[in-house]
Amino acid sequence: MKQLTINGDIIKIPSWNEFTKAQLIKLAACSIEKPTITDFCLQALFIITGLKINKKKHVVIDNEECFYISHGRKKTYLVGESDLAAITLSLREHFFYETQNNGQTVFVPEVDLYNPTINWFRVGNLALWAPAKALANLIFEEYIYTETYYTRYVDKKNEVFMDNLISVLYRPKQNIYNRIINKNYGDKREEFNIYKCKQRAKTITKLDKATRQVILWYYSGCRNYLKQKFPFVFSGTGSASGKDTFEVMLELTTSISGSSINNEKTRKTMLYDILSELNTKADPQNKPKSPRK
Q1: Strand ranges (DSSP E) for the chain?
Q2: What would the pLDDT profile of 132-168 be if each residue is shown by its tens digit?
Q3: What is the CA radius of gyration of the chain?
Q4: CA neighbours within 13 Å on the CB side: how many for 147?
């Protein structure tokens, strides 16, 4: 956990997975307005720390504007504009990573959210529930569709793909669900059925933009988590083939199954089991060494 120090007082900066639902919704609402990186980080500072610019009159000290900033009911700090800018700048690495694009430095959003903080929501007359942390209870067939919809949305920015992504991830609760028995390994969501998901996506169009953005962050963070957990599976992946993700995933399914006859079994296998096996096979240390001549 990062921390700030203001006048000797330590203020903790929570990680992505420690943000509350309310904080994430506010951050999402802020990001939707497409602020500059500096403005976003300044708003994020207030959202995730509880700091507030006091309504007291600002003062000027040594030709620098200073602000009264409160933390809770008892703490008030007088912070100069340059110090506030430095604090804001320190948050940039919390939300963005630096990279190069055509010789220019650019900052790309870095999302480390893999905990489904929005564990359920209601839209229309539907109550829909999230998958487990880091997609731990997805079957491979679900992953085929979530990856397809996610990559299509990122590429084309068509909200229909976002609707379908959410409808696969968030589903109604099973009719019979034992919370105690299924605490660690169960799935409270109804069994995956792509036809039901496509039908439900028509209702998800009503979901507010901020919640949609948080769910998109969650899935993006899960993808980053899986890439770290199974590095050999995702190393060197890309779209150089020009093929649609769905087509690529279907080819991968047949490759894993060994034959299209076994595809159904592969699709119903837990995602983590598939990725673990693929990661082991792709690990260079597990590949047979060429015999010495």
Answers
A1: 2-6, 9-13, 51-53, 59-61, 64-71, 75-80, 96-101, 104-109, 120-123, 126-129
A2: 999 999 999 999 999 999 999 999 999 999 999 999 9
A3: 23
A4: 23
What are the structural domain ranges in the chain? 2-109, 120-284
d(CA 15, CA 280): 30
Cα(41)–Cα(94) distance, integer angstroms: 9
Euclidean distance between the first and final Cα of the chain, in Å? 53
Q: Are 215 and 128 in contact (CB under 8 A)?
A: no
Q: Where are the beta strands (DSSP E) in 149-249?
A: none
**What six digits make up the tokens of 53?**
């610019």
- What is the three-class DSSP state of 255? helix
Would you call 126 exposed, middle or buried from its count of C-beta atoms within 10 A (0-12, 13-18, 19+)?
middle
Coil vs helix vs strand at 27: helix
Prediction pTM value = 0.86
CB 60: neighbour CB atoms within 10 A?
A: 10
Q: How many CB atoms neighbour CB 64 within 10 A?
A: 11
Q: If the chain, 293 residues long, is cut into consecutive pieces of 10 residues, what is the mean pLDDT of each piece? A: 78 90 94 88 89 80 86 83 85 76 68 93 95 95 95 93 98 77 70 96 96 95 93 68 73 77 86 91 71 55
